[in-house]
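SAMPLE LOG
Freezer: B-3
Tube label: C17
Construct: single chain, 151 aa
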Amino acid sequence: MSSFRDRAVLITGAASGIGRQMALTLAAEGARIAALDLQGEALDTLAKELAGKPVATAVADVTDLPGVRAAVVEYTYAEPWTVERMSARGRERLTGYGLSVPRRRFAEPPVCPYCGSREVELDSLFGPTLCRATYLCRSCKNPFERFKPPS
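STRUCTURE (predicted):
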């Protein structure tokens, strides 16, 4: 597939099926997405999944030309979620489950959620999900996962 970075793409039937997958794929390549569908709630869900990327949605019946012409498309640039937006309570609860959470964009060294030691080593950059890495605490010998800091 050629690069769609910074290109505007109009996708009909974007709320589900092939249209939805095209919206997700092209947005990942950097395209600006204008998504049309009859399913307003499903379009809202798509827009939430594409938060942080330029996406516009409109409920429209593409078989009704006046309806398409009346559709208003506005791009939103919603701020993506990062660990910086996590509450103190959320951090505490994750620590209780054995997860270490970086506090800011340029994160401090990991802290063992079990014993509080900073004597830890990276075990694997790739944890059970793409957003986590696994570490081993040298003090208490427990393995733990840590959310990767935002880039």
